[in-house]
Design a protein that fits this description.
Oxidized Rhodanese, domain 1; globular; 2 domains; 5-stranded parallel β-sheet; 11 helices; alpha/beta
């Protein structure tokens, strides 16, 4: 079932916004991205509104480990969690937030995610803090997932587990003892931050849309072709900023002014009436770009194409720039 169908099943249509990413199991630093020369006809927004408190520091979280209303979710492997984690953190497999439909990785259904949160003892009123060890790659993907379905307070630990360990903060090997809950999402899914393939097709050549390819430069040009895609290259007109370029070597997000410069230089400068679509190989890196553009830089209209290149590059009827092979 496509993400569009999941949202339709929940009684809401998918809005014509967003784009997606993929090949996202690694947090390695990618080469600096190459941008196309496609001109943007409108001036960039001067009314950027970053989301306050969406990113938290190690010191902030260290002061909240005894607060039962603040729940950390460890998104590393179970082996790493068992070897040592942030005190009080729960472990949830990243697969609980995704599902495979054939060869395509997509957002899991609301019921699946709600069940996983309930088993971990999380309530809708809790503040969730997410951390991984891959430059916030999975933390931002899960943030997007929870934003789609409506958890009210989701945050990302800046610097990930790497920063926690480097700061010599307390580490626990005790599994969480939080009692299970009957978690349920209380709102309809937020269709404004999700797009499907049909909407991406319509976005090509549409001046009200800016498409951001968050893969590596080699994937963007088609030199690096990853299954199940059969063709390499990129969506016509897409501008390339590798997700990893937004993360410092320390694992922390770059300062906001550097993030804005990074995307501005690539031509990703949206006016207030434009929407930015992000995509990658499978929608994971695209969610990282979505998080940076929406919550850190402050663009209001950003969405993820969840099917990403796994879907686009596997079709024979899609338009591609680069090397269709």
């Amino acid at each position: 079932m496509k993400i569009a169908a999941l949202l339709m099943a929940a009684g809401i249509a998918v809005a014509a916004v967003g784009c997606s990413a993929g090949g996202d199991s690694s947090g390695e630093q990618a080469p600096k991205a190459a941008a196309t020369t496609a001109a943007q006809p409108k001036a960039a927004s001067t009314n950027l509104r970053p989301t306050a408190d969406k990113v938290v520091s190690v010191d902030w979280l260290a002061g909240k480990t005894s607060d039962p209303s603040v729940v950390s979710i460890d998104l590393r492997t179970k082996e790493k969690y068992d070897a040592g984690h942030i005190p009080g953190a729960v472990w949830i497999a990243t697969s609980e937030f995704n599902q495979k439909q054939g060869d395509i990785t997509e957002l899991a259904a609301a019921d699946q995610i709600a069940t996983a949160l309930g088993k971990a003892g999380i309530k809708p009123t809790d503040t969730i803090v997410l951390y991984d060890d891959q430059g916030s790659l999975w933390s931002t993907r899960v943030t997007w997932s929870l934003d789609v379905y409506g958890h009210k307070d989701t945050r990302v630990l800046n610097g990930t587990w790497t920063a926690w360990a480097a700061a010599n903060k307390p580490v626990s090997t005790e599994a969480s003892t939080r009692a299970a809950t009957q978690y349920a999402f209380a709102t309809q899914p937020n269709s404004a931050i999700v797009v499907n393939m049909e909407q991406m097709v319509k976005a090509v050549g549409d001046p009200s849309k800016i498409v951001c390819d968050s893969r590596t430069a080699d994937e963007y040009t088609g030199r690096d072709l990853r299954a199940p895609a059969k063709s390499g290259g990129h969506v016509p007109g897409a501008l390339n900023v590798a997700y990893s370029d937004a993360v410092a070597k320390s694992g922390e997000f770059l300062p906001v002014d550097e993030l804005r410069k990074l995307y501005d230089t690539a031509g990703i400068k949206a006016a207030d009436d434009q929407t930015i679509f992000t995509y990658c190989q499978s929608g994971i890196r695209a969610a990282h770009a979505w998080f940076v553009l929406k919550h850190l830089i402050g663009y209001q209209n950003v969405a993820v194409y969840d099917g990403s290149w796994e879907e686009w590059g596997a079709r024979s009827d899609t338009k591609i720039e680069g090397s269709r092979s």
